[in-house]
Automatic annotation (TrEMBL):
This is Methyltransferase domain-containing protein. The lineage of its organism: Bacteria, Pseudomonadati, Bacteroidota, Cytophagia, Cytophagales. InterPro entries: SAM-dependent_MTases_sf (IPR029063). Keywords: Methyltransferase, Transferase. One of its GO terms (molecular function) is methyltransferase activity. One of its GO terms (biological process) is methylation. SUPFAM superfamilies: S-adenosyl-L-methionine-dependent methyltransferases (SSF53335). Pfam families: Methyltransf_24 (PF13578).
Length: 199
């Protein structure tokens, strides 16, 4: 392969730094520990900058519900998919679906589903305005779940692009595969933002 062909086939636009125009704290929030803390300040900004509708949001990787509750401030319906059993990267590995369902019960626009993302994406054909991927931080899972999310939403965000190189690599490859625009917000362990160009 010549150098030109190599560059054409492997070129990825540099990730653009995401620059929030305004920070705003959502009204409803959970007072629990989460590595996601801090990102709640830029969700309204992301919705504004990419002109997202606020009907439907899907989250893969709910754990105790910190980010799901943040999304519930902005979207009419939030679907949260998780095994609720933890993974190799989470501290908690105990099953907690009932407990988390009770904690999130006051947020009536959140629907929690106890499922592996693989089973969910095999049957769901709906479209979402925003998708959030924050499952086990391996390349294959992030790529597979992220590809479905990018193909079924206007904007997909990925947590831990700074703290997990495999997440960052998967997100870059997804941008290359889908042709979506890629931004990265480096704070709070990193948030990758994939935006469909034509919506
Ligand atoms: C980093 S935590 C999510 C944190 C959460 N977004 C928050 O706001 O704190 C990752 C979660 O992904 C879930 N998870 C990991 N692999 C999964 C899979 N294959 N399908 C569904 N959920 C998965 C784990 O059970 C865990 O609750």
């Amino acid at each position: 392969m010549g150098l030109r062909t190599y560059i054409r086939e492997n070129f990825i636009e540099d990730i653009k730094p995401y620059k929030p125009k305004h920070f705003s704290k959502p009204e409803k929030m959970l007072e629990i520990v989460s590595a996601w803390k801090g990102l709640e300040l830029i969700i309204a900004d992301i919705i504004d900058q990419f002109d997202l509708k606020k009907e439907r949001c899907i989250e893969f990787g709910v754990e105790f519900g910190y980010s799901a509750v943040v999304f519930s401030n902005y979207f009419k319906n939030v679907t949260g998919v998780d095994t609720f059993e933890g993974d190799i990267h989470t501290v908690n590995k105990n099953e907690h679906f009932e407990e988390t369902s009770r904690r999130l019960a006051p947020y009536t626009n959140i629907q929690l589903v106890k499922s592996d993302y693989k089973d969910w994406i095999a049957t769901d054909d709906q479209r979402y305005n925003l998708a959030h991927v924050d499952i086990v931080h391996n390349y294959n899972e992030t790529f597979e779940c992220g590809l479905w999310a990018a193909q079924h939403s206007d904007c997909t965000i990925f947590h831990d692009t700074e703290s997990f190189p495999e997440v960052r690599r998967a997100v870059k490859d997804l941008a290359k595969k889908t042709g979506h625009k890629l931004y990265n917000y480096p704070q709070h362990h990193g948030l990758g933002i994939l935006v469909a160009r034509k919506r």
